[in-house]
Amino acid sequence: MNRRKFLVNTMPAAVTLPGFLNGFSFTAFGSSPDDSLTSLFEAEASNDHILVLIQMVGGNDGLNMVVPLDMYANYYNARTNVAIPQSKILRLDGTDKSGLHPAMTDLQNMYNNGKISIVQSVGYENQNFSHFKSTDIWMSGNNTNDRFSRVAKTGWLGRYIETEYPGYPDAYPNNDMPDPLAIQISNTPTVTVQGPILSMGLSITDPEKLYSFVNPFSDYPLTAASANKELRYVRILSEKTKTYSDIIRAAYRSTNNMAAYPQNNLAQQLQIVARLIKGGLKTRVYTVSIGGFDTHKKQVNASDTTTGNHAKLMKDLSSSIAAFQKDLELLQLEDRVMGMTFSEFGRRIKSNASMGTDHGAAAPMLLFGKHVKKGILGKSPDIPADIKTVNNVPFQYDFRSIYASVLERWFCVKQPLLDSLLLKNYQSLPIVHGTPCGLADDIADTNTQSDNMILKMWPNPYSINATIQFSTTGGFTLIQQINALGQVIKVITSQNYAAGTYNIDIYNDDLKPGVYFLRLQNKSFQKVISALKMRQ
Amino acid sequence: MDRRVFLTRRRPQSSLQNTNKVPPRIFGSGLNPYTGNWTRNEVAHLLKRTMFGAKKGDVDYFLTRSVSDAVDELINTVPVVNPPLREYGLIEDEFGVLFDDLGVPQGQTWVQDFNTTSDPSVISGINRFRGESLRKWWAGLILHQNRSICEKMVLFWHHHFSVQKEEVENATFLYRHHDLLRRNALGNVRELTKEVTIDPAMLIHLNGYLNSKLAPDENFARELQELMTVGKGIDSLYTENDVIEAARVLTGWRIDLKTMTSFLDTRSHDIANKTFSAFYNNATITGNSNGLQEIDQFINMIFNTPETAKFICRKLYKWFIYYEIDDATETNVIAPLATIFINNNFEIRPVLETLLKSEHFFDALNQACYIKSPFDLIVGTLREFNVSLPPYTDHATGYPVFYSVYKKAAEMQQDLLQPPDVSGWPSYYQEPMHYELWINSNSLPKRADYTNDLIKDNILDLRMFANYSSNPADPNQLVEDVSGLLFRYPLSSASKTYIKDKFLLNNSGNDAVWTNAWNTNNASLIKTSLDQMFAFLMNLPEYHLC
Q1: CB within 10 Å: which end of chain B, N or C, has fewer?
Q2: Residues A438 and A509 in one domain
Q3: Are the Cβ atoms of A230 and B370 closer than 8 angstroms?
Q4: B403/A contact by beta carbon, under 8 A
Q5: Residue A477 belongs to what domain range?
């Protein structure tokens, strides 16, 4: 089925979206936009933008990647044996609040040239500290505990691709989309591009590989349920692999890289990506990965904390992204490509005795490309002076707000599709320049407006009763209470308000004494304050 | 679709049109002993799941026994094995100077030697070589497996308690860890878990050796619960605080490099009490300086939750049967199996025995639905074709062959002693694809190249295999028998006709072309035909299922 046919077919069924969620009817949360379904599908048709996703496997220590200069004393106190010396932290134009790891000079330059956007403290409620579960959550965009949910088993980009190119695998390749829908430079597919039936992505490690297997029969018996499912899988997979490998090989051979890349595994992967894009593939999503971030021990060298395993990773990440960006520029692809990093979690604020850090919660994300907005969205994480093992970085931004903003501002996905892809409504953040999809706002403005939001609590510290005061610019407004581990344990309010300032009283609060945070979210603005609960 | 409908409509000729609708699996079968047919089909099913490939000789052997005797023999046969040997020569230091491993002469085992006598510049090089020889030896044991489930269970425990060579580095620790799994492969899981908890390789792999009371390291405490015992099922309600408390129980374990064993350093051990959540019945583990006692109580506490038995049974289920565990399977298979596990004090044999003798195991729906792991494919092919290999104890001529085997498996994403991470191989846990993850656009070509090369390099004796046919001179019978032996899933008659005509009859449509060639022993024609036919068959999707 081609896309136009699909659109014609589905338009009359304007109430529910087509089958990409396998019968899950979507619910639009929050504000309801003017767009009808028709305009939402029409708007997508001409976008040729590409997203390159870099997975940092193992849980990246965000606090040592984007170091909080304005919290330095507490930062140093919390992790003296792994802390980056203040004088070595790389400064960024226009801010003295945060700087980069000393190994990231290339990214420092990119930032200063306006090609990097940093989002502080990205995470999610009910942080899961397992690598595997948290990776699933980041890749699927779903952190409900329902292991039987079918949505839980699809990837956020898999769902997006399914709406752009419905009917995979049967209907592909076709004239509208002659190329792989997504390419993963990896040995195995990941959940990110998992669609409802198959992975929407093709995993490759060698773009020049030739194939010899055969697949001539179409008369497989269909009734042996489980065996049949696996047989069909192997058959489809071999068919698609044969078809697409020829396309990939041709694209790869038709061109060459123009920039010099450093010698590391991530750079090699990005090199392939650049060539395939230049080779003319219409593929929209590429994923690459860099491993080794599970730095429980020997994260730094004792003799010099700016060196060691994490420094090597920061260097590789920084130099590879910079080389890739340079290549895109020389290949005249800069306007079509943006990239984004993610990791399953950050690491604990307090370091351990093994010169390392344990699993943590929120961490910064990097976005790069010609069209990302230069700046740092959000504040430095609040690091307690009296640090405990359990203290984590509470999230300021839900990672799905970043996904939502990329889908909306880079792939021009409109509501209500946007909410249905991410299963809920999320903030729209100013991280991509408005021009591609027509949204104009900026980081400095957003930060200022966030600062101007009112979020207070009295008394603070409190024992069982307190009053929370907050302001909203109107529309959907959310206040969450977060524990020291960074997990949401209470929702204070979650509803639409008229613009103004409001009070909410808390009576007989039943939480255990300890450190908590209140997080206010309204449109692209957010604010986090700490709230200390005392013993009665 | 109802299972009975499936059984009565064995070979419908529908085409592959609607790929979106996968029929749900419906199970009625539970753990009652299987009493149905005992034919080549059932024997091959049992052997392909419990061993690597089903050799015709083994199928013949078990055909003369009962289901019960066959399973008993498979789970009670535990071979005694000799340790890995030094097969490597001199070791080069970073300046190109060659040194000998002074601890062990060639052809002798290195497992008793702690690698302290050789020149310091090559100690780490020797470690690497020894690690390699360990993997070669292990691949050799898999290739030379007896009629026993043992090798599949050793690999299962490696998946379960997965440690990585690159983390552990030290070959002695790796060998001892492997030996621990091998000795207990069919033993008591709770006791094995206790031993693994203080096993030096695991202490290194998950940082237990760095875990101290002043700065607890939660790595092992977390993975033990999440991946090795209670798991993360919906009823597994352990808390983040349970992880913190568990880490405190495990503080202070260190490794003595003189004896290469672990011990408790009481100065680093937290002797305060540890208290756990309601999930663990609010248990308190009394802190003291006897770390073993604490570990004993702690692991007992974990195994006392019903979730542990269920979680391990689910893992075994995914390893041996299929990856989808629906509500009926959970009720009819997992829950009663977990009860058997608990009632037998966590001995694994009664669990395997019940599962492998069950109606559920032999349920038609559970046959042919398993995607071969790289070892199933590589070793299974070599064994089913009776490829003659040097014994696993032959370091000089055997180890190079075993090297090529484990290397191939590693290329296809199943690397011995280097699973992808602490959770083992994603094919046995990653939703929604599971087994399907073994086969993707990157690995499928490697699998195809492997069987092609075996034929091209004349490693497989195809004539011998053709002679398994009841009448190899008859091209219809030959295709029927050969595809029946190679596949667990029947080819359609149209496909068989296509194969016969294309490869045996030179597209003539005349059966006599093949019959004459065979009967007149036209060696070159027979070879060309068989080479092409087998390469084709082993490239078919069916060949990847078992």
Answers
A1: N
A2: no
A3: yes
A4: no
A5: 453-533
pLDDT at B138 over 50: yes
The shortest C-alpha distance from B440 to chain A (Å) reads: 7
User: Does A443 lie in the same domain as A381?
Assistant: yes
CATH number, domain of A327, equals: 3.40.720
> What pLDDT score does B274 carry?
97
Question: What local confidence, expressed as pLDDT, does residue A434 receive?
Answer: 67
Write the residue in A199, A211, A227 that is nearest to B489 by C-beta. Answer: A227
Q: In what order do the strands lie in the sheet with A488-497?
A: A488-497, A475-483, A514-522, A525-533
Mean pLDDT value of segment A72-93: 97
Tens digit of each residue's pLDDT (9 = 90 or more) over A149-183: 444 578 999 999 999 998 888 889 999 899 999 99
B449 CB neighbours in chain A (<8 A) are 212
Three-class DSSP category at B134: helix
Together in a domain, A469 and A433 = no
Boundary of a domain, candidates A414, A449, A484: A449
Which ipTM score applies to this complex?
0.90
Is the pLDDT higher at B494 or at B148? B148
pLDDT in tens, A254-279: 999 999 999 999 999 999 999 999 99
Hey, are the CB atoms on B442 and A226 less than 8 Å from each other? no
A15 and A30, same domain (yes or no): yes
Do A371 and A476 fall within a single domain?
no
* Yes or no, beta carbons of B431 and A219 under 8 Å apart: no
Tell me if residue B38 falls in helix, strand or coil: coil
Confidence label for A526 from pLDDT (cuts 50, 70 and 90): confident
Residue B236: is its pLDDT beyond 70?
Answer: yes
Q: Are residues A413 and A432 in the same domain?
A: yes
- Per the DSSP assignment, residues forming a β-bridge with A501 are A471
A329 falls within a domain: yes
A494 and A387 inside one domain: no
Contacts of residues B188-193 at CB distance under 8 Å and 24 or more positions apart, as own/partner, are: B188/B345, B188/B346, B188/B347, B188/B348, B189/B312, B189/B341, B189/B346, B189/B347, B189/B348, B190/B299, B190/B300, B190/B303, B190/B345, B190/B346, B191/B346, B192/B157, B193/B224, B193/B228, B193/B229, B193/B299, B193/B302, B193/B303
CB A338: neighbour CB atoms within 10 A? 26
Percent pLDDT > 90 in chain A is 54
Chain A contact for B343 (CB, 8 A cutoff): no
Q: What are phi and psi of B529, to 5 degrees?
A: -65, -50
Q: Which amino acid is at B315?
A: K
Which residues does chain A have within 8 Å of residue B439's beta carbon, measured at their own beta carbons?
A: 233-234, 237
- B28 pLDDT above the threshold of 80: no
Residue ending a domain, among A402, A419, A449, is A449
Partner-chain residue, chosen from B371, B422, B449, that has the shortest CB–CB distance to A230: B371
Q: Is residue A499 part of a domain?
A: yes
The residue of B11, B16, B225, B324 whose CB has the most chain A CBs within 10 angstroms, and thus the best one to mutate to test that interface, is B16
Interface residue A202 vs chain B (CB under 8 A) = yes
C-alpha span between B138 and B148 (Å, rounded): 15
The verdict on residue A498 lying in a domain is yes
Q: Is A230 within the bounds of a domain? A: no
Residues of A in contact with B226 (CB under 8 A): 130, 132-133
- Cross-chain residue pair B216–A209, CB shorter than 8 Å: no
Q: Are A296 and A358 in contact (CB under 8 A)?
A: yes
Q: List pLDDT tens digits, range B182-220.
A: 999 999 999 999 999 999 999 999 989 989 998 888 889
Q: What is the pLDDT of residues B505-520, one digit of tens each?
A: 999 999 999 999 999 9
Q: Min CA distance, A97 vs chain B (Å)?
A: 29
Chain A interface, mutation test: which of B11, B206, B442, B447, most A Cβ atoms within 10 Å?
B442
Same domain, yes or no, for A397 and A299? Answer: yes
pTM of the model: 0.76
Query: What local confidence, expressed as pLDDT, does residue A439 receive?
Result: 67
pLDDT tops 50 at residue A2: no
- H-helix segments, A21-129: 37-44, 62-65, 72-78, 105-112
